Records
---
Amino acid sequence: MTEILAQNCCRESEANFVILLATAAGMWWGFLWVPSILKSKGDVMNKALKIAGVGLVIVSATAVMLLIQQRRKGVSLQGLTTPAMAASPTASGLPRLVDLGADKCIPCKKMAPILEEMKEQYKGRLDVVFIDVWKNPNAGAEYGIKLIPTQIFFDAAGKELFRHEGFFSKEDILAKWKEFGVDLSDAASQTPAFERLSPAKTDERPKDTICYMCDGSIAPKSLVTVQTEKGPVRLCSPHCYFIMYSCLTEDKTGFEKKVTVTDWTTGKPVALTEAAFLCGQDETTGRPWIKAFAAKDAALAERATAGGNVLALEALQQKEVSHRCGFCDRACYPQDAAEVIVEGGMHTWGCCSHCALGVAARTGKDIEVREKDRLTKQPIVVKTFEGKVASLEPKTAVAWFGQRQKPDGTWASAGCFHQGFFTNADNLKKWVEQNPCETGRLIPISQALADKMRLSPEQIKKACKIGECVPK
């Protein structure tokens, strides 16, 4: 409890306010209980002891709050903690960034890796100073701060240019310095520019062999067809059908009657509602697979050699839509998705890397995204704070924003199946080379997050939804 309270007391006056509030609450509690004690049955000694107990609770609560205020201590930030310094010119004649915070304040802890990185990256170009105001109590008054963390920007002559209260991302800090004519960008720190706006190769596959959802090739034995007023919509697998089903905004009553699957044994179409399904998992990846059959006996015969479980449609559908994207609510397999941990401990998924970032926009909370490089499967971890990237591992990680040009010449997202994260720009370029039909551009992951955070609640509600099935 002490740790939680200490982490949340980020204003200098806030601790005093909490003490006052606790004392007032104790006095009010005493005001309510003392009369009842006096009216209760029992001898005078027992009543006196009860009243003394009430007083002890009030005094103890006040003492605990005072102790919290006086014992705000933690692990120091090595290499950054500096005694309080006046806003005077630096000996090196460099612009200076001073961050006043504390090592147990939550937003201050989010700032720590940013300050450490900037201190090293811009050595000789920018002085980066951290002052712990709980260990240097006079610094708060010296710099005139009211909230921690506070970042103060000084020019090389020691003149204050700007100050900001609260968490400040690296991108925002660099942008603010640039406003003052201090451009800290260099070839090593800039995200490499890369885009491909025209396919390197024409997709020569017949349109009826391309999946409506994922653009993958349709194998004859796993074809699923949805009949619509505008023609048949063809999908590469039952899983892509359930993804599409989860995205529909139209009335889905009786929708399954429009659907046929393909018998795995004969290759002939079978009504979805009459089929039996054999389901299993890949031994290496754990990713589910589904085979459809016209008869349960055929499914049981296949199970004897392939393994798995035979399921009816209702059980299969419940299983397929049980995992949903935390941003767009689309059905997904965890093996294909990014893991998202939301502030407070809730775990969910992002059906693609960009939708994973969108969970921060939908929930309004800080998140941690655990994704894999689309080329090498190496782990990538993104942590956000107040809608900004607080940390990125590895720091070289970038995003691919898959886009397609519309008939009117404007560009739009190519969809969730065409997005991804990569540990570095080289991996992204290799992946693009291996996928000659992909079009889009490389963007910083911070930009991908910012794009999601700009969405309105109405836009988030409509994300990745399908109003009506239309053949491609």
---
Amino acid sequence: MPLFIAQQNRKMCGEGAPGSLAAVPGGSDVKFAVTFGRMHPRLWVEAAEAADRLGFESAWLPEHLVLPVAMSGSPHADAEHPPVPPTTQLFDPASYLSFIAARTTNLRLGTYVYLLGLRHPFVTARAFATLDWVSGGRAMIGAGAGWLQEEWRALGIDPGTRGERLDEAIGVCRRLWTEPTVANDGPYFPFDEVAFEPKPVQRPIPILIGGESAPALRRAGRLGDGWIGMSHTPDSAAAAVAVIRAHRAEASRLDQPFEVTVGGECASEDDGAAWTHAGVDRLIVSPWRRSAEVLHAMAAFSERFIGAPTAGA
């Protein structure tokens, strides 16, 4: 286990990480990932196994607890309509990713993004500690306050409190994962002293803050182990990274590990260098137009940009 943890720490620092252009002559250190959100659920297991075999560094599962029939808003800037219909198939992320973990070896597994403040932190901490255990320390959490206010109202929660609830829940989860006993006197999740065992392999599990708004970027700099953004170009990512870095500096956190993850395109080796120059550590790619093309497109992308995985990687 110590060797595995050391390998994971190197991944967090971007040193020789699998799924990166570093293995390609003239490439960059950006790591490549895929999202299950751009393919039909019937392909998720096969795509995860392929991603693991082809050297992709991680796979990310979108998340909602429930989708009301009447929805408004969007996580994408300037979008006029919600990006998903209410009939979209939803799965519990920690449960499904635990299943994926049993079918893979090296692939890191994360959420894109999880509404952490919508649940009691006991639920989140237990679910993702379990995922981290069964995966051997491969869990990551992309967590956000959420854009779908109707989802919060469906659970009887004031959506105006979602940012404060998220902040409190993050702190509680980290304490549960690292401290012998924990009590909390916060306004949203108060509880008397409890024990929480077993601790996850990673102490704590990395939490990447999702979102594009000013509060989300501030939260990423102030609280996050990283930031996970939606669809970006190198220029738009660089602008967000600069804002986050300023918040990290204000919070005296520039000396702490931090990873930037965004969705985007990579069509050439120059693109990979541009992402690295923009401050991006991990790029979530979807080099296919429809689900029928997923496996072929992943293989072609890996051959060009990742190269053959090393033995035992």
---
Amino acid sequence: MLVLRFQSRGSWTYAISFRERVTHLFKTAQDKTRIAANYNQALAEIDKKLPDVAILDVKLDKGDNDGIELLSHIKTKNKDVPVIIISGHASIEMAIKSLHYGAFEFIEKPFDQERLLNFVSRAVENFNLKTQNKEYENKLFSSYEIIGDSKNTINILDQIKKISLTESRVFIYGPSGSGKELVSRKIHKNSSRNKNPFIVLNGALLDSKKYELELFGEEKENGSISYGALEKANKGTLLIDQISEIPLDIQSKILRVLTDQKFKRVNGNSLYWCSDRRLGLHRHVAVIC
């Protein structure tokens, strides 16, 4: 658990006692706790190791919304990490803003200790469930095998074996339910990339305004970076499901990345090289690149 600095604009005595109060609360609950006294310390702690839960004050020493900036920073690293926002200057607008950026809960000061403990307990449970679901999903697909002794099945298994040893672009096609994703995961599992991420992006489920953000990431005005699927899948495999649902202009940009092996983040100026294997699926076609 990460408890980050609280209310530096108040008296120093109050700030210290408040931070110690929260820290003591979780030490009593036998949780491992890390604290940070300002924005830069908090950023360093987050970058060193992500917590299971982060408790942030909206206002730190850097500005009126530096807690929200840290929230955004955590979410770019792992969107599943629950963040509880605490504020002594709460407003409906501030609460909505923090929840919009992905906060698990928003609490006004002064707060009831049992209420905070309850929120943290729920947050940890929620985080563990999401982590376990991902592990089960990976194990589920890892345990699946393509079974058969027909000529076509043997031919597919031979092709998977050959493809897994290369970095070649591959085109897979077949009707819905024929096992295109299973073949994709099998290629990833048998390749030298199998220790690195297998990222799935569903073109049909993406917000139409966020295709580029989800793929390429974004460099925000406050200096924080939101990483896209291309960077998250670095040295691993990126599966783009239902690619036909993605607008043609975005598809052309994906093709450019396939050709040049580099891209720019949204609002960014620098080119970034990518070395992930890309797979694209739609209802009847899968492309492995």
---
Amino acid sequence: MTEQNNQPIRKFRGELGLSLAIWENRTTGEDGKTRVRKSATLQKSYRKQGDSEWSQSEISLFPADIPVARALLDRASSELPYTITEEEASDTSS
């Protein structure tokens, strides 16, 4: 049986609508032992062009996924220019 906490155990907010939550799930195995498994959810909040409502996109990561995701993001960072448009800046300040 898996018991998931409805609230993250930690939450971090970054710029540009990015946030990360750390979750803790407890599982009781057939042997009766309780195991704890942690995961992270990376979320991006954004507004679609011409829309006043916020939307979210998210991905769940297990601990082993994080170094791989970090390496891929580092590679993307070196390939993509870091510029913020005026519209992006105003959307994240709301």
